[in-house]
Design a protein that fits this description.
alpha/beta; Rossmann fold; six-stranded mixed sheet; 15% strand; globular
Length: 192
């Protein structure tokens, strides 16, 4: 009986340790890494208080969504300045169609912003996950491996599908394009 109780007590610990061993941690990279050819920054939108979106939200109506607050707007502007100072200018900028992502993308001021549905969230739409990630992988495979920097503003769930690592608001991951839908993960860009 004591053995069974001890095993039941230790089982959650073993499960936790096993899951931690599968977590991937990448080192933070200097911003100048993004100025190199074929680099992609997959960036989580800036600070937008809360989780998910209110019930019944609509993509065409920002007032129905969770949006950036003043600190998120400052965070996005500051990151844009840091990226520009690191040599990332006139980047190709793509954004999820969510208002918090589009606002982040515009506040970066790195170049014109194009909406890309393959960057949309599937947080509360798990049935859309596979199709969304497949579309994003196809998009990444179409980008030139030696092209100018690309900045993708998206959501935590999207970045997690490529890195299996958590991403704070205003943080992201840097990848090297290689002509496939599985670019090489080089490291992270911490939030300010």
């Amino acid at each position: 009986m004591k053995k069974t109780v001890r095993l039941l007590f230790l089982l959650p610990l073993f499960v936790l340790l096993a899951s931690l061993s599968r977590c991937t941690v990448a080192e933070p990279l200097p911003l100048t890494e993004l100025a190199k050819p074929g680099r992609v920054l997959m960036l989580r939108h800036a600070q937008a208080p809360g989780v998910g979106d209110p019930p019944g939200f609509r993509l065409d109506e920002c007032s129905t969504q969770r949006n950036l607050d003043d600190s998120g707007r400052r965070q996005a502007r500051a990151l844009g300045t840091r990226l520009a100072n690191a040599g990332v200018a006139n980047a190709r900028v793509y954004s999820s169609q969510w208002c918090r992502c589009l606002e982040t993308a515009r506040l970066l001021q790195l170049g014109p912003v194009s909406e890309l549905p393959a960057l949309n969230s599937f947080f509360e739409r798990s049935q859309e996950r596979d199709a969304t990630i497949a579309a994003l992988r196809s998009f990444l495979a179409s980008l030139p491996a030696d092209g100018p920097p690309v900045v993708l503003i998206t959501h935590q769930v999207t970045i997690n599908a490529f890195t299996s690592a958590g991403t704070p608001s205003g943080g992201g991951s840097i990848f090297q394009l290689d002509g496939t839908g599985n670019p090489r993960w080089l490291g992270t860009l911490p939030a300010d």
